[in-house]
Amino acid sequence: MRRSIAVLAVLAAVVPAAALAGGWATVQLSSTPAGVEARAPWVVNLTVLQHGVTPLAGVTPEVRITQGTMRRAFVARPTGRVGVYRARVVFPRAGTWRWTIWDGFSRTHTYAPVRVAPPA
Predict the structure, then answer these.
(1) Of 40, 64, 95, 99, which is most buried with the most CB atoms under 10 A?
(2) What pLDDT, in 10s, does the model give residues 2-47?
(3) Residue 75 in 3-state DSSP?
(4) Does some domain include residue 17?
(5) Is residue 93 part of a domain?
């Protein structure tokens, strides 16, 4: 009997923590940075969906870019549509850049590197 109570106490402590830790999100993009020029803005809408289904409000997604030691982060702002955020990203120089998106909820989404053209 004591053992059953101890097991139930442990489960009562662990299950709520697991429920809070669970969860994931997907990010849908209105465009990619393919074809963008250095110093020209790439404006992108990010649709953040909890479990790939439910639009997620109240998060702060970021588009993050890196080239060598240069790193930049661009916060996406709410658009007025639930779960849809807009970021204005500027690659400061030409070359190959790595880019990721922090969904503001559960993880960082990684994309293939992009080649940024010199400014026109």
Answers:
(1) 99
(2) 554 443 443 444 334 334 446 999 999 999 999 999 999 999 999 9
(3) strand
(4) no
(5) yes
Is 74 a member of any domain?
A: yes
Residue type, 83: G
Domain holding 41: CATH number? Answer: 2.60.40.10
Helix, strand or coil, per DSSP, at residue 5? helix
Number of H helices, E strands in the chain: 1, 10
> Among 52, 58, 55, which residue's Cα sits nearest to residue 25?
52
Which tens digits make up the pLDDT trace of 59-112?
999 999 999 999 999 999 999 999 999 999 999 999 999 999 999 999 999 999
Tokens of 117: 């053209």
Residue 48 lies in a domain: yes
**Residue 103 sits in which domain range?**
23-116
Q: In the chain, how many domains are there?
A: 1
Q: Is the pTM of this model over 0.70?
A: yes
Q: Which of 25, 4, 13 is nearest to 101 (CA)?
A: 25
Phi, psi of 19 (to 5 degrees): -65, -40
Residue with tokens 């669970």: 22
